[in-house]
Amino acid sequence: MTAYPETLTAQNRVPSLSEIFRPVNRRLSQVDCTLRSWPGQTSPLLRTMAARTISRPGKLIRPGILLLITGHLGYRDGQDILLAAAVEGIHLASLIHDDIIDRSTYRRGEKTALQRFGPDFSLLLGDFFFIRSIARSLSVRDRKIPEMLAEAARMMIEGEIEELAESYNFNLSRTRYLKIIEKKTASLFQTTCRLAGRLAGAGRKEVKALEEYGLNLGLAFQVTDDLLDLVGQPSRTGKPTFSDLREGRVTLPVIYALKRADRSSRHKLESSLHNIKENKEAGDWPQLLELIKSTGALDQTFGQAVGLAGKARRAALKLKPSLYRQSLLQLIDFVLWRER
Hints:
It is a single chain. By secondary structure, the chain is mainly alpha-helical. It has a single domain, classed as Farnesyl Diphosphate Synthase (Orthogonal Bundle), CATH 1.10.600. Helix content is 71%, strand content 1%. It contains 16 helices and two strands. Strands 1-2 form a two-stranded antiparallel sheet. Strand 1 and strand 2 form a beta hairpin. Helix 2 crosses helix 5 and helix 3 packs across helix 6. The relative contact order is 0.13.
């Protein structure tokens, strides 16, 4: 069992995203400029809402992955900038809709679109990003690429619906949970890698390795997110601890805690969880965290993330060595050890 660290800080410093994406930083700036041009000649109100949303600080992880892969494969056409922006647009749309569902007022310490513009305008803004992303992808010469991006969006929406249907289901299984996050989170990571491979003309073995990398990186990303929701510093994550549980999301640490707890601990845990279901503001969060920690669930969850990261690493190592591959490998460590 991998010992879970008290804080998500690696003993050996993990490079920042700026360092990891150094081979493509200039091109990532072009992606950002492309996104900022999207509102174009739309209505003044939509331009204002879109500009304020795009200007929020983001990680640009998915566009960065796409550009690292096309760089690794020697792609030089320039359509990858357009496609990277489309991928990020899908991600932005999903975040906006997530915040509406969760009634979230802050993300990464910034006001959400929901908080700024209200639920009606935010819903339409999310729709705008979804539609504009698919429309922009139609400019790519390969007709299969818009279909692939639309399929990823479908999977993400399906995952969100299934997660919402399982709200406060304290009998949720690990298998069911993993299938939901595969759709909700990992599908866009995997599709990003698949799109990059197709655009750059990768061979069958390379595409398979890239798909394995994206799938497992996306799963590790979400599992680590679950941990940060419990033990992350709100000043770093930009949201209060136990945000997931407050909104009814039953994540892997809770699933493992319920499974591993002895009779006495399980009774306390179930009682606490059902109290939160009745009144999400009534939770004794420090006590609940200690109870979850005492079962070893945090260790087990971190072990799951480490295992998924290992699968992503083995997949990336199937690619030929390059500066870009090195960045893809460093990104795995960042996902596993990040603090936000």
